[in-house]
């Protein structure tokens, strides 16, 4: 049976191998709808960051999840935390989605799935609904692979507060 089970340090989820906790998060630079051209993970050093992957703009679950993050955005900002959404949709779709839903955080376009794959969040031609909390030094502190879009933002906020209290 050797090789059939993941080692204790390796985590698996639908979408692939997840990056290890308490190590440097996989780096990325992706085009954004924010008007800033491209956004990189390193742009957020000194702040906490929530990176959430989602399948597609304008779908029911993804819309609900994005709305909840938007509703809670002031709470995240009070915790020195930024939110980034990532999917395989292009920048124009992201802009239309943000305009339609009143989203005030960047959505990044991972058309080929390279970043989604690095985060174990890619299946077929879409990002999988996973989220990650990254600390101000760029260290991956937690991940969420079983996401309920209606309460996910609250789950992330609760965990973020715990992490910030313990660090």
UniProtKB/TrEMBL annotation:
<feature type="domain" description="Thioredoxin">
    <location>
        <begin position="19"/>
        <end position="165"/>
    </location>
</feature>
<comment type="function">
    <text>Thiol-specific peroxidase that catalyzes the reduction of hydrogen peroxide and organic hydroperoxides to water and alcohols, respectively. Plays a role in cell protection against oxidative stress by detoxifying peroxides and as sensor of hydrogen peroxide-mediated signaling events.</text>
</comment>
<dbReference type="InterPro" id="IPR050924">
    <property type="entry name" value="Peroxiredoxin_BCP/PrxQ"/>
</dbReference>
<keyword id="KW-0575">Peroxidase</keyword>
<dbReference type="InterPro" id="IPR013766">
    <property type="entry name" value="Thioredoxin_domain"/>
</dbReference>
<keyword id="KW-0676">Redox-active center</keyword>
<keyword id="KW-0049">Antioxidant</keyword>
<dbReference type="Pfam" id="PF00578">
    <property type="entry name" value="AhpC-TSA"/>
</dbReference>
<dbReference type="InterPro" id="IPR036249">
    <property type="entry name" value="Thioredoxin-like_sf"/>
</dbReference>
<keyword id="KW-0560">Oxidoreductase</keyword>
<dbReference type="InterPro" id="IPR000866">
    <property type="entry name" value="AhpC/TSA"/>
</dbReference>
<protein>
    <recommendedName>
        <fullName>thioredoxin-dependent peroxiredoxin</fullName>
        <ecNumber>1.11.1.24</ecNumber>
    </recommendedName>
</protein>
<keyword id="KW-1015">Disulfide bond</keyword>
<comment type="similarity">
    <text>Belongs to the peroxiredoxin family. BCP/PrxQ subfamily.</text>
</comment>
């Amino acid at each position: 049976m050797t090789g059939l089970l993941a080692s204790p340090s390796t985590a698996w989820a639908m979408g692939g191998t997840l990056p290890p906790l308490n190590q440097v998060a996989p780096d990325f630079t992706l085009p954004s709808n924010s008007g800033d051209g491209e956004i990189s993970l390193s742009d957020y050093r000194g702040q906490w960051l929530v990176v959430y992957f989602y399948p597609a703009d304008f779908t029911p679950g993804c819309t609900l999840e994005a709305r909840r993050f938007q509703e809670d955005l002031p709470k995240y900002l009070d915790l020195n935390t930024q939110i980034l959404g990532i999917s395989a949709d292009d920048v124009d779709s992201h802009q239309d989605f943000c305009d339609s839903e009143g989203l005030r955080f960047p959505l990044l376009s991972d058309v080929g799935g390279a970043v989604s794959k690095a985060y174990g969040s890619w299946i077929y031609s879409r990002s999988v609904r996973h989220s990650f909390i990254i600390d101000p030094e760029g260290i991956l502190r937690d991940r969420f692979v079983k996401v309920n879009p209606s309460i996910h933002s609250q789950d992330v906020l609760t965990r973020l507060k715990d992490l910030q209290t313990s660090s």
